[in-house]
Amino acid sequence: MAKYKITLIPGDGIGPELAAVAKDCIEATGVSIEWDIQEAGVDVMQKAGTPLPDSVLESIRKNKVAIKSPITTPVGTGFRSVNVALRKELDLYACVRPCKSYEGVRARYQNIDLVIFRENTEDLYAGIEFQKGTKEAGEVIDFINRYSAKKIRSDSGVSIKPISVFGTERIVRAAFEYARKNKRRKITAVHKANIMKFTDGLFLEVSREVAKKYPDIEFEDRIVDNMCMQLVQMPEQYDVLVLPNLYGDILSDLCAGLVGGLGVAPGANIGDQYAMFEATHGSAPKYKGLNKVNPVALILSGVLMLQYLGETQAAERLERAIADVIREGKSVTYDMKEVRNDPTAVGTREMGQAIINKMKAAVR
Ligand code: NAD
């Protein structure tokens, strides 16, 4: 019997070709996995009547761990994003995005090794919004104008920003636990507490309280605008960042840019019961079926999954093989070449095979 049963969601667009390669690379580490393959996304919408059949959630609830390729968010169909639905249904409250420099990736900086912990459920992304001109918006505005010295104009749209003690405690705790487990030295909480005293202020206050329970790990905080400047000027000074949802979203992309962009940006969505690993990038439909795009972000997400499972050596072997292939710069996809139409660029499958060959050569 396999040691692990893991849900694999091939997704749509470039998803299935990336999933096939990532699966082969993860298997080549020797960790014994039985894959529970579950279809979701635009390709199953017609057959199943929904882009997220119940069986997908049931499978993850049973197996606890999933790896997911990108899924297109259908526009104008009334279906919400499958990616958001999965995070919400499974309460995957921590979005973890490591941003690490690999030699050979074209980027402005070297030696960056940051990890972002973005809160995934609250803040301005909670989805509590009132459209300008509606009865509800009018009532909300009237209510606020009664209780606040500051007035909202009647022709406003309103988005609500809830940040709770519960939500903050668990994301900050998750960041500290990760730091401890992965021998990271410092946590930086990012906020705008000087302006938003009752939301970001609460986030900062609760972060400080949680930090007291982890005296072995350094703790500091930064105001988000200053953090952006510091990340661009001296990213090497930072280690693990913990942020509310909106700042986390923006700084995740900033940090992905620091290390070379979407092709190499892995991610994880983690809750107390379940974890789902996925690349930061989307389904890039225009490249579908062309065997062209970079599989590294999803394979690195597989590295994160192996780490999460406690398969540390397998994770290290796979990451080393990826790093070697990137450093050599030979068997890499078009986006990693100096000129985009370099004819020596290889396809998705060939890059995956080069990574597998590296792992095989290392054990010989
Ligand atoms: P995208 O990330 O799919 O693509 C943007 C561009 O980035 C591509 O055109 C391509 O040039 C480049 N790119 C992306 N992945 C690459 C890879 N592996 N290798 C090389 N180049 C790569 O973003 P988009 O076009 O805004 O979104 C397309 C669809 O994906 C949308 O429906 C969106 O909702 C969805 N999406 C899904 C996820 C997810 O599944 N978690 C995340 C983001 C976007």
Please characterize this protein's 3D structure:
With 364 residues, the chain is an alpha/beta fold. The chain folds into 3 domains: 1-96 and 265-364, Isopropylmalate Dehydrogenase, CATH 3.40.718; 108-122 and 163-258, Rossmann fold (3-Layer(aba) Sandwich); 123-162, no CATH class. It has helices at 15-27, 42-48, 54-63, 82-89, 135-147, 165-181, 200-212, 224-233, 245-258, 296-308, 312-328, 348-363, and strands at 4-9, 33-37, 65-68, 94-100, 113-119, 129-130, 158-159, 186-191, 218-223, 240-243, 266-270, 275-279. A 10-stranded mixed beta sheet has the order 2-1-3-12-11-4-5-10-8-9, sandwiched between helices. The longest helix is centred in the middle third of the chain and has 17 residues, at 165-181. The protein is globular and about 70 Å long. The two termini are 26 Å apart.
What would a concise description of this structure say?
This protein has 364 residues and is of the alpha/beta class.
Salient structural properties:
alpha/beta; 3 domains; Rossmann fold; 364 residues; binds nicotinamide-adenine-dinucleotide; two-stranded antiparallel sheet; Isopropylmalate Dehydrogenase; globular; 16% strand
Share of residues in helices: 40-55%
Q: Residue ranges: pLDDT <50 for 5 or more in a row?
A: none
Query: What composes the largest sheet?
Result: 10 strands, mixed
**Cα radius of gyration in angstroms:** 21 Å
Counted by DSSP, the helix tally is 12
Quaternary assembly? single chain
First and last CA, distance: 26 Å
Query: Which strand order does the major sheet show?
Result: 2-1-3-12-11-4-5-10-8-9
By secondary-structure content and strand pairing, the structural class works out as: alpha/beta
Order of helices and strands: EHEHHEHEEEHEHEHEHEHEEHHH
CATH class of the largest domain reads Alpha Beta
**Average pLDDT rating:** 95
Write down how many β-strands occur, each being a DSSP E stretch of 2 or more residues: 12
Small molecules in complex: nicotinamide-adenine-dinucleotide
Q: What would CATH call the architecture of the largest domain? A: 3-Layer(aba) Sandwich
Under CATH, the topology of the largest domain can be stated as: Isopropylmalate Dehydrogenase
SS strand fraction: 15-25%
The coarse overall form would be: globular
Structurally, how many domains make up the residues? 3
